[in-house]
């Protein structure tokens, strides 16, 4: 732990400028922003600040914002751009550039941005001249209102580059692989998501971004989290490649008793697909960021849970101990499956999370929230530890995120490629298709036997069809739930009394 006083570090986090520690960074900052004087910085100070912050009463951030920014709609807010040449590090041939994001629309909570180099940090101060407001009627003079977050881009010698990540709003952030468009969002911490007493939204008060060396492919971001119940120190290490990998380390401190924490939270939009028929008049075939939830549990079982746009809130919990991984995946990458010329859902990232170390007992919680807009992130998944956090206690976790086309870890069994449901008289008929290279062998495909369970409900009319040319096996079955309004379904393939597929789980509801 550094000897730099915690009290002074908190001043750095919340007040910005301190007495200058030197002028070593004067030439290394933003081109359009002014920078506050430098102050000493060490990663341990973020944890120390979170520890001390938890002992003080919670104070909401000062979110005052001049008009018209808090009244902007999405389209108006989207017209606010960075001025040409205003990106941080854009003039010093760094491997990444930073674009501070303006406050407005839904993003009104301020976050302090600091640049770190050679053990010192300088706050980026707001400068109206760094933004192009288009046709918006903006005051000629604006005080330092801070920022709503930051966009990170990689850069190259030709002046090109691509988006790597965005940190904006509460503790939300998003990333993507090369060739993709933004989709899913992650969250540093969730508290009581979906609980009847209401959700609490932690937020990042400050972000410290370390300037990388010229040849680096990683970027380190430190973050100070605050909320009414919990504070925390985060370290994000972004690895830029074909996929973007984000290593996340966090230490949390409880101001009050917290029983439902959510780690590795993922959120995405799902408007409709083959398992629901809420929008049959839409010209598109599917509209969603993700196909379903993949879980690799602590016992080694692979689970696939397709999602749907529900008519009522549905919460599913998958109990586990020391999970090996979980994530939201977009499995179908065929444009024809969506037919959306503007949005290109087939290019949305999958997000796979692998715990680092043992996470103990808990559950992967899935929330399916009714939605009438493709702009709503209505599907949420997260790890909820069994043990809560008592006031005054602390805990630490670490995990690795893969923002990718397909996860690095995958079943060596058949995987689900499609799930459909429709009427069969008074019954419901399901069609679930599994694919594996082994199914190209007609003899192997012929050996496949499905096991199907429904609780409650009765399964009938089970049929299996092998399609070696497609390397797939298709299972059809009918479900009779009688007077019940729901049924938990389970389907798996077996051959020679051994598992031949991942486990398909689904909750049918009226």
What is the gyration radius calculated from CA atoms?
25 Å
Strand tally is 35
Q: Mean pLDDT score, rounded?
A: 92
> Biggest sheet: strands, sense, closure?
17 strands, mixed
Globular, elongated, flat, extended or rod-shaped: what is the shape?
globular
Span between N and C termini? 57 Å
Count of folded domains: 3
Low-confidence stretches: 1-32
Number of helices: 4
Q: Tell me the CATH architecture of the largest domain.
A: Distorted Sandwich
Helix content: under 10%
Portion of residues in beta strands equals: 35-45%
Structure, described:
This protein has four helices and 35 strands. The protein has 510 residues and is mainly β. The strands form five sheets. The chain has a 17-stranded mixed β-sheet that branches. 6% of the residues lie in helices and 43% in strands. A hairpin with a 5-residue loop joins strand 20 (292-296) and strand 21. The radius of gyration is 25 Å and the shape is globular. It has three domains: 6-260, Distorted Sandwich (Beta-galactosidase, Chain A, domain 5); 278-387, no CATH class; 415-509, Immunoglobulin-like. It has helices at residues 6-15, 43-53, 74-78, 442-446; strands at 34-35, 39-40, 81-82, 96-101, 112-117, 120-125, 131-132, 149-154, 163-168, 172-175, 185-187, 190-191, 203-210, 218-226, 230-239, 244-254, 261-268, 270-272, 287-288, 292-296, 302-306, 314-321, 325-329, 350-355, 361-368, 379-385, 394-404, 415-424, 427-435, 449-455, 458-467, 472-480, 486-495, 498-499, 503-509.
